[in-house]
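Input sequence (81 aa), recorded before submission:
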Amino acid sequence: MTPSAAGPSASRTEPALSRRESEVLALLAQGATYAAIARDLRLSPHTVDTYLRRIRAKTGATGQVQLTLLAYRIHGYPAAA
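Predicted structure, token format:
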């Protein structure tokens, strides 16, 4: 499997995410919608989208699955069975 097919490389160091980016990422990994994330963090849905675009730019993640896997690596969430 090529590195691009595997998603963000596990061998490189984790990106420096802001506290808020990390919170948004954690909620997304738990299955929260953009609207739910916005409500829980008292943000607009547009701001949630902005945070997720920044996270994608920092990590090279191209989709929600890759973002979820990244959250599991960073936050130590157990992988789904």
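Checked by second reader. The longest helix spans residues 45-59.
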